[in-house]
Amino acid sequence: MGAVPVQRTGAKDVDWRAQCAAIIPCLDEAATIGPLVEAVRRELPTVLVVDDGSTDATARLAAQAGAMVLGNQRPCGKGAALQAGWHKARELGFAWALTLDGDGQHVPEVMESFFRCAEATGASLVVGNRMLQAQAMPWLRRAVNRWMSRRLSTLLARELPDSQCGFRLVSLSALARVGVSAEHFEIESEMLVRFIRGGYRVEFLPVPTVYGKQRSKIHPLRDTLRWWRWWRKECAESPNQ
């Protein structure tokens, strides 16, 4: 099978403040969500916070900071939260979405770099790359990220330095065409597979690696096993296998 032609997304004349919404999936992020929403809104006025069944004040504080809050009564998973946010952004007429995690590890001050990267390269998906400062990541998350990224790089025959970073700029029209269905943390990997196999340009952008005292929502055993089952299914369907 020949290589899939790379499709470019026209981002030369995008008014990012008007055509891009920020989407923040959250679960019990009351400690960080207010200041995060305020910082993001300095760049992108429309912020959609998807509260995935929080039991703290996440939804209230996000709304007070100026976010539009979408809520689930119970936790449905990061993938499901992101899909709800993307759907709402398309419904509101946005062409692009920039996703950030709600725990404060993604620095809003570098959002402009994602826009410039899309403009310069024609990428439909721009992914943050924290691995230039990998020593700042907790060792287990660093090891799991590298393990997953190596397998995806082999599967897709290109280097993917940080396959698990949730700091991303995505063309919503391209996303709708490739389709994603994952409801949990494998959503990050599925996006890469769908975009690259669909022939869309994907770029990685160096971003700061910031980890505080926040507790990861990833369950090491459960989510790694879920990712492993997903990955085996993708390998079985791969045209390169």
Describe this structure in words.
The relative contact order is 0.17. α3 links the parallel β2 (47-52) and β3. The chain has helices spanning 16-19, 33-41, 58-64, 78-91, 111-121, 139-156, 172-178, 187-197, 220-237, and strands spanning 20-26, 47-52, 68-72, 96-99, 125-129, 168-171, 202-206. The protein is an alpha/beta fold. The mean pLDDT is 88. The protein starts with 15 loop residues before the first helix and ends with a helix.
Topology:
Layout: H1 16-19, E1 20-26, H2 33-41, E2 47-52, H3 58-64, E3 68-72, H4 78-91, E4 96-99, H5 111-121, E5 125-129, H6 139-156, E6 168-171, H7 172-178, H8 187-197, E7 202-206, H9 220-237
Parallel strand pairs: 1-2, 1-4, 2-3, 5-7
Antiparallel strand pairs: 4-6, 5-6
The major pleated sheet works out as: 7 strands, mixed
Strand content: 5-15%
Q: Could you state the order of secondary-structure elements as H and E?
A: HEHEHEHEHEHEHHEH
Query: What's the Cα radius of gyration?
Result: 17 Å
Termini gap: 11 Å
Q: What would the principal axes of the Cα set say about the shape?
A: globular
Number of strands: 7
Question: What structural class do the secondary elements suggest?
Answer: alpha/beta
Q: Helix count, per DSSP?
A: 9
Helix content: 40-55%
Low-pLDDT stretches are none
In the sheet with the most strands, the strands line up as 3-2-1-4-6-5-7
Mean pLDDT across residues? 88
